[in-house]
Design a protein that fits this description.
Shape: elongated
Order of helices and strands: EEEH
Structural class: alpha+beta
Strand order of the largest sheet: 1-2-3
Largest sheet: 3 strands, antiparallel
Distance between the termini: 31 Å
Number of helices: 1
Radius of gyration: 16 Å
Length: about 70
Amino acid sequence: KGSTVAFRHGRWKLIPEIKQFYDIYNDPEENHNLWNEASAQEKINDYKNWLADILTRIEEREKKQNYGQKKAC
């Protein structure tokens, strides 16, 4: 938390914290943010949900591993 997460999958790049979504095949320089494009909303929501699920699983794994802390007797 407190950092920006970017996710790339195939032709798409999502940066949800700063509301950016790019088609990096057609826009490799990331000049055209698709975040507000109606045609991109379904894909943005799919990726946001997928990314949230991945981050939750990572956080749960870290909790199970006690955030890398070793227990001392």
